[in-house]
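input
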Amino acid sequence: MKTIQIEFSKYESVNFLWPELIEDYGFDKAKKIVAQAIDLQKMNGTKNSTIPIIFSGTGGLALIPTQMLEKDDFKINYKDNQVLIFNLKRKSFQILNEAN
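output
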């Protein structure tokens, strides 16, 4: 397992990563990636303690502790079915609220 350190205060919150995911993988595949991320949270995550993350460049998935998002004046109100789309190269992220 690879461990990376992410300082979210150095990353920008954007609104273009979900459309780019759709452009890169197609709508159906992008929806499937999000569904898999939510399933990963349900199977292996801890409610209110972890959030699924999608790496936009690869479509890879992981779970991260929500406390990583609560640093340096950046805090989210975590809800069920939230997914974090993340782009390491562009130093950007987007929080996606997936509807049931």
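quick obs: Strands lie at 12-13, 50-55, 60-65, 82-87, 92-97.
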